[in-house]
Amino acid sequence: MAEQRLDNIGRHEQPHHPPAVKPISNTAFYCCGIRMRDAETPHPICGDRFAKLFMNDHGMEIFSRFTGERGPNVSNVARARYIDDLLRTRLTRISHKEGMHRDAE
After folding, report:
1. Nearest to residue 34, comparing CAs of 58, 6, 64?
2. pTM above 0.70, yes or no
3. What is the mean pLDDT of each run of 10 residues along the chain (105 residues)?
4. d(CA 85, CA 33)
5. What are the backbone angles phi and psi of residue 12, rounded to the nearest 5°?
6. Nearest CA to 34 among 2, 1, 82, 66?
7. What is the distance between the alpha carbons of residues 31 and 102, in angstroms, rounded to a whole number?
8. Are the CB atoms for 2 and 17 separated by under 8 Å?
C-alpha cells in the first residue's frame, strides 16, 4: 500500500508515482499499422476500422519502414484475425454461460 503523509491542514496526500500507462512500443505501431492497412482494402481480413485512430505521426513513421514486407505483413494480419476469432468465440461462450446461470436463478 502506498504511504500517505498528512499535510499541514489534515488532508492525506499520495506520494508521486510515475504514470501507469507506458508509451506505445514500436512493435505495437507496426501491428496497428498493418491492421489499419488491411481495413483500407476492399476485402479486409481483420477489418479493424479503429486501428487508424491509434496511429500518430511517430507510428506512421515506424510502419512506413515495413510497408514493403508483404509476407510478414500478411502473416501478421492473419495471426491477428485468428486471435480475434478465438477471443470472439471464447467471449461468446462466457456470455452464454453467464446468461444460463441467470436463467437458472
Report:
1. 64
2. no
3. 48 57 81 94 94 93 91 91 94 81 56
4. 19
5. -85, 135
6. 66
7. 38
8. yes
